[in-house]
């Protein structure tokens, strides 16, 4: 899309201008994980060889389990969800400072998390902030903690999956008050993308869809995450 004529006169940043960081529960080095993709036949070895130095540099910016967004703060050695949010937002601010970045963009690519109930605190920002400060209390899902940390850090935010995140009204209100840019909550790369494209076509052709079914193999930990109400 950005290579089309509509974007010719827009001063978009070059790929080399981006500095990548992240957080992951896995402690396997990024280069090693790329090599497993080679072993699986998904990438050619020469591609990994060409970017191995950059992958290694990115790996140095990957935060481990002690700086994870997890619904149960005790699993990350914290007393409150607010403490986890502070850790994440401080890590984001440190990343920006170390690399003298102009803009920080947070993209949540964690496994899709279950939807949440319509609770009073999810509609009241002040009540929400009060409750996440209470010891050992599970209030927000993990994706909500990441979103709140991004808001605190003044970062643009996008959720790659249909996890709750800024779909929670109180969080969206805080994001609006902070004036951050945000998008989401579904990048639509698979079945959702196809259905989004096909559905209008069926309507335009006056075709009535009697049923619509799909299969999700729930790989990569998605199934386990959706089955766990307090998922990481």
List the secondary-structure elements in sequence, H or E. Answer: EHHEHEHHEHEHH
Described by the principal axes of the CA atoms, the overall outline is: globular
- Global structural class: mainly alpha
CATH class designation: Alpha Beta
Q: What is CATH's topology name?
A: Rossmann fold
Biggest sheet statistics? 3 strands, parallel
Beginning-to-end CA distance, first to last residue: 33 Å
Counting DSSP H or I runs of 4 or more residues, the number of helices is 8
What do we call the CATH homologous superfamily? Answer: NAD(P)-binding Rossmann-like Domain
Strand content: 5-15%
Whole-number tally of structural domains = 1
Instruction: Give the uncertain stretches in residue-range form.
Output: none
Gyration radius over CA: 20 Å
The CATH architecture can be named as 3-Layer(aba) Sandwich
Q: What's the overall average pLDDT, rounded? A: 87
Number of strands: 5
């Amino acid at each position: 899309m950005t290579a089309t004529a509509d974007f010719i006169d827009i001063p978009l940043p070059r790929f080399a201008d981006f500095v990548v960081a992240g957080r992951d529960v896995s402690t396997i080095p990024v280069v090693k994980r790329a090599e497993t993709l080679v072993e699986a036949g998904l990438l050619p070895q020469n591609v990994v060889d060409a970017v191995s130095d950059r992958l290694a540099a990115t790996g140095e910016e990957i935060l481990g389990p002690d700086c994870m967004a997890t619904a149960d703060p005790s699993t990350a050695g914290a007393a409150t969800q607010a403490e986890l949010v502070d850790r994440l937002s401080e890590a984001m601010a440190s990343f920006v400072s170390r690399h003298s970045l102009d803009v920080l963009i947070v993209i949540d690519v964690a496994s899709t998390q279950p939807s949440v109930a319509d609770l009073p605190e999810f509609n009241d920002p002040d009540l929400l902030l009060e409750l996440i400060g209470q010891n050992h209390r599970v209030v927000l899902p993990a994706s909500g903690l990441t979103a709140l940390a991004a808001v605190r850090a003044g970062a643009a935010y996008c959720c790659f999956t249909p996890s709750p995140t800024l779909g929670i009204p109180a969080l969206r209100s805080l994001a609006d008050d902070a004036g951050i840019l945000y998008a989401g909550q579904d990048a639509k790369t698979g079945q959702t993308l196809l259905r989004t494209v096909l559905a209008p076509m069926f309507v335009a052709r006056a075709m009535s869809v009697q049923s619509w079914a799909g299969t999700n193999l729930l790989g990569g930990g998605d199934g386990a995450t959706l089955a766990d109400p307090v998922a990481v």
